[in-house]
Amino acid sequence: MSSSILTEPVSLPAQPSIDSSTLKTDDSTVKPTETELSAVKSELIPDRLRIKRRKTVLMLSYCGKDYYGMQRNPDTKTIEDDLFKAMLRCNYIDEEVMKRPAICFFQRAARTDKHVSAARQIISLKMPDDTDIAKINEHLPPAIRVMGLKRVTKNFDSKGNCDARTYMYMSPTFAFAPYDAIVSEKYRMPPDVLEQLREILKKYIGPKNFHNFTSRKKFSDPSAIRFIKTFTCSEPFEKDGMEYVILEVKGQSFMLHQIRKMIGLVMAMMRGFASDETLTKTFGKDRIDIPRAPGVGLMLGHVHYERYDKRYGTDGMHETLTWESVEDKVKKFCDEQIFPVITKAEKEDKSMLEWMATLPYHTYDVREHGAVPKMTAIGNAWIQVEKNAANILKRDLEGGKESDSDDDEGTNETNAKKIKVEKSEPIMEADSIGTKIPSTTS
After folding, report:
1. Is 350 left (phi over 0), alpha (psi -120 to 50) or beta?
2. CB contact at 8 A, 422 and 441
3. How far is 165 from 432, CA to CA, in rounded Å?
4. SS3 280
5. What is residue 301's predicted lDDT score, i.e. its pLDDT?
6. Are 51 and 102 in contact (CB under 8 A)?
7. What is the β-pairing status of strands 412-414 and 242-251?
8. Domain boundaries, the chain
9. β partners of residue 249
10. Which residues are CB-contacts of 322 (< 8 A; sequence separation ≥ 6)?
């Protein structure tokens, strides 16, 4: 049976006859021309695939005053949005990359928040070999500048390869004045107060649990533990008739509002509203009520790549990711774009002075869920000083009297205006945490 199946003839369907006269052997009719190929490629292959691109880092400086942060958000003015629009106008990216930056392996080193500036921000992405940062800057507003460009390894990631970040905070020195000092634009920080400030900053150094210095973070969350490498304060300097200092904190990474809360608590400690004990409590499991310093003085200072520089910076093909060659340009940008915003906010808007008036309203103690916050003893004393000063001013105005301008004892200051109180030395009392506070006499 099987042999009959194998030997049985099989009928195949008739094949169409081919006219050999219709065959053409001319290559031009078989393959498209080079012109046709180019036209097809231009339609099917995006420019970003036809143009040679390599992984690149750009170093940016920007003033964040009029921006809602670094990262792009729909219908929001951000640094990245203006930067990508400028690169699009230069044809360094296309519309598809504009919509989806991940196509060109885009990454930022740090995501600065609303109104936060940067002296040296780093981004990484694939860029054409002929990228000219001068052309990009032509399409950027004065508040944003690309300061430098360097080629990096193909797997480099500006966030993933970052070892640490340094943030700077520029503040008037009166924010750190002792509680018995007159807070005004004329305040100048003495050496002993500067040394006290530097000692407090050192208490943040090391690995600690910073769950109290951000929002929606529990003590048990491992990500709440952050490592602070250094925290320093510059020598005081004057700008526009006021004295300032710059605080610099270097850490592996920072959480939302962390730096502003760290500095806010330091200011409260220097003013006498909080103590070393308060700072120690913040690293524990309880939720502690602490203030958050204004954001206008905060800026990203440096992004550090020590491990990358050690491995690739001297291989003969790549450069270290340090920017000494453009340091003068960065300093000039800060002097012209960033620092004037900070000094103007203080001179005209009194942003720090007004914020300092809120310090007495924090408890600097454990937050109990549902409980009404209670003011500390020093907070109550401070409010009483303000009330007494206001009552005396009202009484003098109603009686047509003027304060004796030859005697400054017992004066208090509200919004940088000296208001006369009584001619008596303040009586010193100790509140519940052992901090000396001024008490008024009526």
Report:
1. left
2. yes
3. 38
4. helix
5. 97
6. no
7. unpaired
8. 47-151, 164-361, 377-439
9. 167, 231
10. 309
CB burial class (10 A; 0-12, 13-18, 19+) of residue 212?
Answer: buried
Neighbour count for residue 424 (Cβ, 10 Å): 10
R_g of the chain computed on alpha carbons: 33
- Return the exposure string of 279-310: e unless at least 16 CB atoms fall within 10 Å of the residue's CB, then b: bebbbeeebbbbbbbbbbbbbbbbbbbeebbe
Cα–Cα distance measured from residue 256 to residue 33, given in angstroms and rounded to the nearest whole number: 59
State whether residue 413 is helix, strand or coil.
Answer: strand
**Rounded Cα distance, 263 and 254, in Å:** 13
Which positions are annotated as active-site residues? 113
Q: Which residues contact 58 (CB under 8 A, 6 or more apart)?
A: 122, 123, 124, 125, 127, 133, 146, 148, 149
Helix (H, G, I), strand (E, B) or coil at 239: strand
For CA atoms 157, 160, 163, 166, the dihedral sign is positive
Q: Supply 91's token pair.
A: 């044809």
Which residues are CB-neighbours of 439 under 8 A, at least 6 positions away? Answer: 381, 426, 427, 428, 429
| The pair of three-digit structure tokens given for residue 26, joined into one six-digit string | 């001319």
Give the length of the chain. Answer: 442
Joined together, the tokens standing for residue 16 give 């169409």
Q: Beta 117-128 vs 298-304: how paired, if at all?
A: parallel
Q: Token pair 């105005």 is at which residue? A: 397
Amino acid at 101: P
Domain 47-151 has CATH 3.40.50.300: no
Orientation of helix 258-271 relative to helix 191-202, angle to 10°: 140
Do the two domains 47-151 and 164-361 of this chain adopt the same fold? yes
Is 297:119 a contact under the CB 8 Å cutoff? no
| Segments of the chain with pLDDT less than 50 | 1-6, 23, 28, 401-442
pLDDT of residue 51: 78
Reported CATH class of domain 164-361:
alpha beta
Nearest to 111 by CA among 122, 100, 102, 101: 122
pLDDT of res. 209: 98
Q: Which of 110, 114, 129, 115 is nearest to 52 (CA)?
A: 129
CB atoms within 10 A of CB 151: 16
User: What pLDDT, on the 0 to 100 scale, is given for residue 52?
Assistant: 87
Q: Which residues have a Cβ under 8 Å from the Cβ of 262 and sit 6 or more positions away?
A: 204, 210, 213, 249
Structure tokens at 292: 């958050």
Q: What is the pLDDT of residue 429?
A: 34
